TrEMBL record:
Name of this protein: ADP-ribosylation factor-like protein 15
Residues that bind GTP: 25-32, 71, 128-131
Entry's Gene Ontology molecular function annotations: GTP binding; GTPase activity; metal ion binding
Residues given in the record as Mg(2+) binding sites: 32, 49
InterPro entries: ARL15, P-loop_NTPase, Small_GTPase_ARF/SAR
Protein family: Belongs to the small GTPase superfamily. Arf family.
Keywords: GTP-binding, Magnesium, Metal-binding, Nucleotide-binding
Length: 141
């Protein structure tokens, strides 16, 4: 009886805290692939995000609700409309991109770092595509 009572009467586990993050970066930097990997989804059918998507990324002690914003030039100007309520930022950049794209990414990162809704938040800057031959080191990025 004691074992059964311990199993059935324990009640639901306490809710995990949830955190709202925004994930930004230029097109092709790997934002969608990163989130798919974190959600244990198949990497086979990944398509670039054209607007935005939201994924709940479960961890043992927390859930991250990540708003992934498309990185195309015509979409980046709308990023700031989705910043409200964010508690952290993931900035993904393609470490194997061209100098021009790296400069564009640098400008977008600086803009995000200075945005009033983001400037006090923690930032994770992910130098993606380190497996490519043209990848820059962290120091070079």
């Amino acid at each position: 009886w004691q074992c059964f009572r311990a199993l059935c009467c324990k009640g639901p586990p306490p809710p995990r805290p949830e955190y709202d993050l925004v994930c930004i970066g230029l097109s092709g930097s790997g934002k969608t692939s990163l989130l798919s990997q974190l959600c244990s989804e198949s990497p086979e059918n990944i398509v670039s995000t054209t607007g935005f998507s939201i994924k709940a990324v479960p961890f043992q002690n927390a859930i991250l609700n990540v708003k992934e914003l498309g990185g195309a030039d015509n979409i980046r100007k709308y990023w700031s409309r989705y910043y409200q309520g964010s508690q952290g930022v993931i900035f993904v950049l393609d470490s194997a991109s061209s100098e021009d794209d790296l400069e564009t990414a640098r400008n977008e990162l600086h803009s995000a770092l200075q945005h009033p809704q983001l400037c006090t938040l923690p930032f994770l800057i992910l130098a993606n595509h380190q497996d490519k031959p043209a990848a820059r080191t962290v120091q070079e990025v």
